[in-house]
What we know:
six-stranded antiparallel beta sheet, alpha+beta, Dna Ligase, domain 1, D-amino Acid Aminotransferase, Chain A, domain 1, binds magnesium ion, binds adenosine-5'-diphosphate, four-stranded antiparallel beta sheet
Amino acid sequence: MKVALVVDKKLDGNKKKMVESVKNALLKKYDVDVIAFDENFMRRIKGYDLAFNLSTSGGKDTRQLHVPSILDLMGIPYTGAPASTHAVCMDKSFTKSVLLKHGVSTANFLVVHPGEYVSEDHELRYPVIVKPIREGSSKGLKKNSVVTNIEDMKRAIFWIHERFNEPALVEEFIDGMEVTIGILERENGLEVLPIMEIDFSNLPDGVEKFYSDRVKNQGYDRYIVYHIPARLPLDLKEELESVAKKVFKVLGLRDYARIDIRIKGKSYYILDVNSLPLLVPGYSDIIKMAEAAGLKYDDLVLEIVMSARRRYGL
Length: 314
Ligand SMILES: Nc1ncnc2c1ncn2[C@@H]1O[C@H](COP(=O)(O)OP(=O)(O)O)[C@@H](O)[C@H]1O
Ligand SMILES: [Mg+2]
């Protein structure tokens, strides 16, 4: 089988490492070419039996949608979710609306578009967190994204509008345990990988206890402790596993995905659904969770391909 490894034109250090590693895993079973998503993509992708899609860029409102759309158009099988699912997952308010419709719990929220006014008698309970509606990797999240009064909330919303030119999502801040859940589609159905807890409690005083941009991406991550499996009571763990499978199905996710959740008391709140999580060895959460389930990096990559192959009858 000829497999095309479809990647973004520009790759930073982590993504380069991911591409090399996925390629090496695929080479164990397939002929592999790395193909960048650029102006020659439609010509170059012709004739491949399957595409392993790692492309997450392209456009602003349409990021991550192009490669699966074009592959569908050309009838080329590919790994990961279709464009329609990425479209829903890229926009946190779309994701939350679909989840709510299906009875899945997510924090109370409101959306404020650029130029819109937010009234003082909104019904959210402070503290709230103000996020860009369609970014990722903690972009736009900083200490003062969490606010406790209307003035600071307005300021944070305005900053999102100015900085990202997109709506702000204002969401009740869930002060509780954070976990992330990896899901893998396997031969016998959906497998929920061992749940990972992200423990912020060792961060220095004065540093926000959540994945702000600086905590996630700028050196503070060395203070974070990861527990696999998460320290959850059995009933809640089982509830989360079944919720994760439900989320996977209702959003139309495919092959693999990751869901970010916060827990307070006995209640869980879905924060974010990652329809194409990165596969950086030694770094990405889903890799750590797969390893805890006994799946080595290469096996995970090959499992993803097998799941796609089953879907297309290949
Ligand atoms: N409602 C919330 N309550 C508590 N923490 C939150 C909330 N929303 C976001 N966070 C914190 O911000 C991080 C990033 O937010 P998330 O919605 O997952 O966006 P991204 O797409 O950038 O990953 C989360 O991992 C969590 O630590
Ligand atoms: Mg997230």
